[in-house]
Amino acid sequence: MGVVMKLSGLIELGSVASIGFDDAVKVNVVFGENNFDVYVKPVPSVADFEFIYSAKGEDDSYGARRVSRFIMLDEHERIPYESAKRLKTELLTALTTAINKVQGPDQYQKKN
Asked: Are strands 25-31 and 34-40 parallel, antiparallel or unpaired?
């Protein structure tokens, strides 16, 4: 029989994601001749996944949903979903690459 777990125990195990950008990772993004820093939320929450995968219809964008949920331009400015849908493909790709660098599979590999 297993141990009875409490929410405080789950938090101590690191299994509850932050809903904010408290632990955001700074990433440099190159867009054409320009480069700038953005902050990426490193650990998605269940709410993040539900928002991203709730895209329905032709006008919804999976990439724009990810950018609006995981990218912060500075410590206070996020890109709203409606604005993210209008980004040029090159910029959306650069921002998505920044997300993938932070949230990629290497994040979950055990560090020695």
From this structure: antiparallel
